[in-house]
């Protein structure tokens, strides 16, 4: 297992048992079987480690949603979108509760910047989805619809976060599909214009050099595997395009479900517009 991955996984176990404040870097390194020096080669501080964990969670969600929006049939797309979003959030509710309780005040500025970037990317994916699903029918109201969908996600996520009762995610997703369809078909008075969205629809691609750096770091950490071999081949293709689109898509598919490679798959899909 890669060192960074090991540190994050063992830290999560300790955070769940003891909380952020009560968990020391010494305890994390002992749990990992590494030295403090090895920890600091990966993370400058415990706060940086926590932000890396948040990054990891958000990267997983964005990668899944991006793939879903581009590859799912229209018939199930909206349901699969809500199901994936809430399922991902439900898996991390314990961490979210702990973060709100202990860390929000110390990481506020960095956390806000991370969340702003995450929401910009998510909004662009939702825009792509609603344009696919509803076409010209929502041309004047699509930006309002994006905010309505985000409002559903934010509001109903609070049930997962604060309610002790079990939540039927299938029924929740079906309910929100119905509500979204009603809004899409019957909203006639737009409020948010395209001009108003220019602030948050900044959709810059990650540069080739930045992607190469991420790939190099990841391949150094990974043991021999089909995912590592796929990364090496994709790096070669990034430097000099030699493979057909079908082969590239196959290599990306090898990475898509690997928890520590799917973000690279997402960045490469965006870079090559696949």
Automatic annotation (TrEMBL):
Signal peptide: none annotated. It comes from Siminovitchia acidinfaciens. Keywords: DNA-binding, Repressor. PANTHER family: ACREF/ENVCD OPERON REPRESSOR-RELATED (PTHR43479), TRANSCRIPTIONAL REGULATOR, TETR FAMILY (PTHR43479:SF22). Residues 24-43 bind DNA. GO terms for molecular function: DNA binding. This is TetR/AcrR family transcriptional regulator. Residues 1-61 form the HTH tetR-type domain.
């Amino acid at each position: 297992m890669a060192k960074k991955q090991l540190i994050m996984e063992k830290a999560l176990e300790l955070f769940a048992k003891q909380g952020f404040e009560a968990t020391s870097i010494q305890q994390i390194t002992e749990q990992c079987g590494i030295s403090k020096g090895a920890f600091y080669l990966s993370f400058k501080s415990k706060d940086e480690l926590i932000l890396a964990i948040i990054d990891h969670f958000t990267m997983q969600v964005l990668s899944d949603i991006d793939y879903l929006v581009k590859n799912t049939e229209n018939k199930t797309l909206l349901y699969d979108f809500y199901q994936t979003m809430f399922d991902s959030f439900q898996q991390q509710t314990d961490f979210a509760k702990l973060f709100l309780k202990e860390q929000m005040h110390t990481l506020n500025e960095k956390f806000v910047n991370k969340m702003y970037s995450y929401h910009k990317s998510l909004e662009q994916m939702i825009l792509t989805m609603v344009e696919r699903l509803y076409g010209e029918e929502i041309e004047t109201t699509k930006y309002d619809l994006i905010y309505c969908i985000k409002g559903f996600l934010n509001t109903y996520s609070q049930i997962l976060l604060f309610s002790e009762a079990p939540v039927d995610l299938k029924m929740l997703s079906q309910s929100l599909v119905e509500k979204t369809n009603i809004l899409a078909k019957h909203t006639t008075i737009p409020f948010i214009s395209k001009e108003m969205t220019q602030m948050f629809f900044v959709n810059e691609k990650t540069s080739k050099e930045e992607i190469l750096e991420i790939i190099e770091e990841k391949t150094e950490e990974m043991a021999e595997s089909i995912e590592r071999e796929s990364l090496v081949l994709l790096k070669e293709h990034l430097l000099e395009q030699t493979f057909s689109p079908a082969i590239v898509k196959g290599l990306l598919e090898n990475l898509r479900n690997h928890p520590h490679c799917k973000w690279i798959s997402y960045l490469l899909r965006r870079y090559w517009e696949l």
